[in-house]
Design brief:
The chain has 449 residues and is of the alpha+beta class. 24% of the residues lie in helices and 37% in strands. Helix 2 crosses helix 3. The termini are far apart.
């Protein structure tokens, strides 16, 4: 497989740039004051093996084009999966037609011209994997085989999956900005099922990243999935109580994610957040900082510019526990009378500060409490701040795991949960947009028997 994206996509970056420029020119000719357009192409391969047999093998080849036009304060958008010249022209015409019938919105429009990215650094986001279907099948088969062989109580599998995707996206607008870059995403996962006299349990593990060379081995993923599954056997309920709750990194990032959902511009201008007008307020303990670092090389959420062409930059969201700002696109920023934060399309590598020691250290220091292993349900309300989710995990006494726990609910109020964070571990999970270690919350309600 060539390292040239054009080999896979059939189109070069220059081709997509030409499409963007032509679409913008057509929008101008139709009378649009301003316009923006994005074109993308991508390929992907995914294989799932279950009990040694190929369960699914899929290959994706995607193309897309979206144009948004502005006639004063009126906005129209249209999209197409057909990138031929005729289809692009029809898409532009449709967007212009829609704009003429929409209501005026004074906050609609492009991001300010002086915020456009002028220097687009290479963030090393494109790492193609010469992965044939045969190799993917071999990797998934080996991952599952190792997992099933760890313990005789592991008698079933939901399969092992290998996925690889590569994409190229170009964005441009009538400020004169045109920019794009390629990116890749690769992963390997395994889900296993174990059974004994006490019942049946399942668990998983996965590895993911932009560079296939940085992935964990198939053997390591299978073994970890097996070990996580075995330790859940013999789970039982516990009585209802208040106790400390410890979240491992892969679940702790969800806690920070709820905070981000509450400070997004859409939640703020719709008055639909428990953190309304919270800038400058103490939200977390004073030892906790959250910073956005969009330019970390090879990271999963790195980007040189956002979906509106605004240059991304390092910034602080939480300093010494105090909230410093919101997460805004240009539209939500105008709604709030603030400048955009370059977050159209999402956040870019949130880094949560941490102390020393990982999950085991925090568990030992917790004394008695609940170590979460799995969360279920969607009982999180960022309007009221209420938090209630089904959970499974382990009960801990004197810092040591006593037995697995299932069929409980953990609940609390997010303001108290955030303020009640006692420690953050250094076992940082880098597989997503939020980079945090384990999080220990001093007290939550655990509802059981």
């Amino acid at each position: 497989m060539s390292n040239d994206p054009a080999f896979e996509f059939g189109l070069q970056r220059s081709d997509l740039e030409s499409m963007i420029e032509e679409a913008l020119a057509q929008a101008r000719r139709h009378g649009a004051v301003h316009a923006q357009a994005a074109a993308s192409v991508g390929t992907g391969l995914s294989v799932t093996v279950r009990h040694g047999d190929v369960e699914t093998l899929s290959y994706q080849r995607d193309r897309g084009f979206t144009v948004t036009v502005f006639f004063g304060a009126r906005k129209g958008s249209a999209s197409s999966s057909d990138l031929t010249a005729g289809a692009l022209g029809e898409t532009v015409e449709k967007a212009c037609s829609i704009a003429r019938f929409t209501a005026e919105d004074d906050c609609a429009g492009l991001a300010d011209a002086d915020l456009m990215a002028t220097d687009v650094p290479d963030l090393e986001l494109d790492h193609p994997w010469a992965l044939s279907p045969e190799t993917a099948i071999d990797l998934a088969t080996e991952c599952e085989r190792v997992g099933l062989g760890v313990d005789k109580r592991i008698d079933n599998s939901e399969g092992a999956t290998v996925s690889s995707s590569r994409g190229l996206r170009v964005y441009g607008n009538t400020h004169g900005f045109v920019g794009g870059y390629g990116s890749t995403s690769h992963s390997l996962s395994c889900v296993l099922v174990a059974e004994d006299d006490g019942g049946m349990e399942r668990d998983y593990w996965y590895t993911s990243g932009r560079d296939p060379a940085a992935l964990e081995s198939a053997e390591a993923v299978g073994r970890q999935a097996a070990q996580r599954t075995i330790r859940r056997l013999g789970a039982r309920k516990i009585s209802t109580r208040h106790a400390p709750v410890l979240f491992p990194p892969e679940l702790a990032r969800g806690i920070i994610g709820h905070f981000i959902a509450a400070i997004r511009g859409t939640a703020q201008y719709r008055q639909a957040s428990f953190l309304l007008d919270a800038v400058g307020q103490q939200v977390f303990p004073d030892f906790l900082n959250i910073d956005e670092r969009p330019h970390i090389p090879c990271a999963m959420a790195s980007a040189p510019f956002d979906d509106e062409g605004v240059a991304t930059r390092d910034r602080c969201l939480v300093r010494d526990g105090c909230m410093q700002g919101y997460v805004l696109s240009s539209y939500s920023a105008r709604k709030l009378g603030l400048p955009t934060t370059g977050n159209a399309g999402g956040i870019h590598n949130l880094v949560v500060s941490h102390g020393e020691g990982g999950l085991d250290t925090l568990r030992t220091g917790m004394g008695s409490g609940f170590l979460v292993n799995e969360l279920m349900g969607q009982g999180v309300n960022t309007v009221t701040g209420d938090y209630s989710r089904g959970a499974a995990g382990f009960w801990v006494e004197d810092g040591e795991i006593q037995h697995p726990v299932n069929e409980v609910t953990i609940a609390g109020r997010m303001p108290e949960m955030f303020a009640g964070i006692q420690r953050v571990g250094d076992d940082v999970d880098t597989r997503g947009a939020i980079r945090t270690g384990s999080i220990l919350i001093g007290e939550m309600m655990i509802a059981g028997d």
